[in-house]
C-alpha cells in the first residue's frame, strides 16, 4: 500500500513535465492547395534533458492517399503544411508523389521549433531512403502503410559575445600605459584573439541562420 502511494505521488509530480504536448495538425495537397486533405497530427514532447521527440498519428486513409498520389499529374507536387502562429500562416514543404509511393507511404518529417520550444519554425517532408523499394515506378505498392517518422530539432538562442570584457581589458591596458607600466609588444590579434574569435563565429552563425530562414518555403 505504501509503495503504491509512493508511485502515485511520483507519477503525479512527473506528469506536468510531460503534460505540455505541442500538437501540429498536418494537411496535404496535390494541386497547390486548391483542395486540402487531413494527413494526421505530429505530437511533440520534451524530456528531462531538454531534448524533443515527436510522434505522427495518422488520420488519413492509406489507400485513399496512395490512389491520390498515383493519380497525380506528372508535374504535381505533394505538399504538406502545418499552422504557424495565430495569423493563419503555415510552414510547408513538398516532395514528388512518386517518391512517397516508392517508400510505401513512409514519410520522414523534420520539425524545427523556435527558441521557446512552443512553436514550429519549419516543417520538411521527404521519402525515407531506408524504405525505398526496388520498384522505380509510380504506383501504389503492395503492403503500403501510411507511417510517419519524426525528427525534432530546436533552434537554440545564440550567446552574445563578451564584448564588455574585451572593452574593459583594453581600457585597463590604456590606463596601465598612462602610468608607465611595461608595454605589451604582442600584436593586436595575439592579445585579443580570445575575444575576437567568438565575435567572428557569432557573426558567421547568425548570417548562416538568416540565409537558411530566407531560403525556406514552398
Automatic annotation (TrEMBL):
- Please state what the protein is called: ER membrane protein complex subunit 10
- Source organism per UniProt: Mesorhabditis belari
Lineage here is: Eukaryota, Metazoa, Ecdysozoa, Nematoda, Chromadorea
* Record keywords, A-Z: Endoplasmic reticulum, Membrane, Signal, Transmembrane, Transmembrane helix
Cellular component aspect of the GO annotation: EMC complex
- Signal sequence span is 1-19
Family annotation (CDD domains)? EMC10
Compartments reported by the entry: Endoplasmic reticulum membrane
What family, per the record? Belongs to the EMC10 family.
| Keyword Transmembrane helix attributed | yes
The record gives the membrane topology as: Single-pass type I membrane protein
KW Transmembrane (keyword) present: yes
Amino acid at each position: 500500500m505504501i509503495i503504491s502511494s509512493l508511485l502515485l505521488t511520483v507519477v503525479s509530480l512527473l506528469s506536468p513535465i510531460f503534460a505540455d504536448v505541442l500538437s501540429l495538425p498536418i494537411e496535404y495537397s496535390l494541386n497547390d492547395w486548391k483542395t486540402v486533405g487531413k494527413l494526421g497530427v505530429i505530437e511533440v514532447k520534451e524530456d528531462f534533458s531538454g531534448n524533443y521527440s515527436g510522434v505522427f498519428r495518422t488520420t488519413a486513409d492509406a489507400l485513399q492517399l496512395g490512389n491520390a498520389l498515383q493519380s497525380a499529374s506528372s508535374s504535381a507536387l505533394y505538399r504538406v503544411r502545418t499552422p504557424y502562429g495565430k495569423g493563419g500562416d503555415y510552414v510547408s514543404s513538398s516532395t514528388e508523389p512518386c517518391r512517397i509511393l516508392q517508400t510505401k507511404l513512409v514519410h520522414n518529417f523534420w520539425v524545427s521549433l523556435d527558441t521557446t520550444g512552443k512553436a514550429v519554425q519549419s516543417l520538411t517532408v521527404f521519402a525515407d531512403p531506408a524504405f525505398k523499394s526496388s520498384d522505380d515506378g509510380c504506383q501504389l505498392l503492395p503492403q503500403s502503410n501510411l507511417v510517419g517518422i519524426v525528427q525534432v530539432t530546436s533552434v537554440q538562442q545564440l550567446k552574445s559575445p563578451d564584448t564588455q570584457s574585451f572593452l574593459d581589458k583594453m581600457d585597463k591596458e590604456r590606463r596601465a600605459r598612462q602610468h608607465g607600466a611595461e608595454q605589451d609588444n604582442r600584436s593586436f590579434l595575439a592579445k585579443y584573439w580570445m575575444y575576437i574569435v567568438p565575435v567572428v563565429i557569432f557573426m558567421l552563425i547568425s548570417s548562416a541562420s538568416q540565409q537558411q530562414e530566407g531560403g525556406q518555403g514552398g
